[in-house]
Fold:
Amino acid sequence: MKYHVEVHGCQMNVSDAERIATVCEQNGYTKTDDWRKSDVLIYVSCSIKQKAEDKIIGHMKELDQIKKTRPHMKVGITGCMVRETSSQDDEKKDKILKRIPTVDFVFRMEDLDQLDYYFREETPLDIGKDFGDQGYLEVPPNPMMPFKGNIPIMTGCDNFCTFCIVPYSRGREQSRLMSEIIRDAKDMAAKGVTEILLLGQNVNSFGNKNDVYDEHFSEAETHPFTHLLIELNKIKGLKRIRYTSPNPKDITEELIEAMAQLDKVCEHVHIPLQSGDDEMLKRMNRHYSAEHFLSLITLIRKHMPRAGITTDIIVGFSGESEEQFMNTFKVCQQAKFDLSYTSKYSERKQTYAGRFLDDDIAKDEKDKRYHRINDLLRETSFESNKKYVGETWEILVDNFKDGYASGKTRTNRTVRFLTNEKTTAGDYVNVKIKKAREWIMEGEIINS
Ligand code: SF4
Structure:
């Protein structure tokens, strides 16, 4: 019996998929990379944009045909599209099941421990756990890459940015106990993981809303998130510690200084800007100004001059004038980001903006603004890459394609090099940078 987990959206969804894989394998399924050949097919959905949902819905026509020849095949959905764990047999069911009859069941990650009932077409005994119940995080992940570990340190979000669906799909902000996170990291390091990625919607507000201390760890002078990085930095076997996503409103000099001093914490900060216009930031309910954001960029470069800095930007949000868009453009010119995940505003019905603000920027205008930002980012990324030429950087190899191996520097830059038979995924190799391109760099392996 085969299973396939199809992941859409953020790293948190990747981490959830790794736990679903464990449950599938505990129930005797083996993995297949071809969703058409699976006996259980599970989508980990994202609903940050309509497009993300459409990607899953787009599979259903073909799935209908496949299920005619393989009626035993089970299709399930979890992730941010799902509000209520249920199946087609239930009277009271999630609206997805009404909308898409091809799907057999949907579940919230909080109900992960009931998933196997759906495999056996039995009625689960204990579904409908509270939003944000973190019990499912006790299921050990089955990592997609044996040398990289995803560790959720908190779930949910209380920020209610007006464009964002996450607070409605993931519940209230809740941090895990520091001892649980350290235990997970030690277990992973013992199994050969060398790079960990700490996950949360606002990782740098870790410990703000609930106590993260117990008999194993007591409160320190530093903020709990800085304290967590200090404790993780002590773990033998780990070589790189990364985190995503921080919120600019909670970034402090204490955190940036700690990043510069802790040898395993990578010099990369993903800091979502969203807009560079103060009026727009208010309309988005994001609690910082463009000026404050730029002061954080200066702070990061003061303590980590070669740090990689990436961001998220939304263009064409409700009411965004040309002048307000240009304020975002100017912040990008000053910040010189290495990369931006730029998106055109996509209205989500359940959000504040979806209910009370007009999606009034025309599609072609959103397209134009999207390309203007991307063209600028291509230039700044290229300029930044040129500074690496002639230098030697350590790369964690995680990909092979067309005779090239590639991976990331500690600053999260992508480097590719002609591979040799000795190089394998998970290796740390030194590469001399020979050529800069817009988004990646090319080099020659020095030793492996
Ligand atoms: S901080 Fe804002 S954008 Fe990020 S998850 Fe929370 S509500 Fe969404």
In short: The domain at 139-386 is CATH 3.80.30.20 (pyruvate-formate lyase- activating enzyme). The chain is about 30% helix and 20% strand. The radius of gyration is 22 Å.
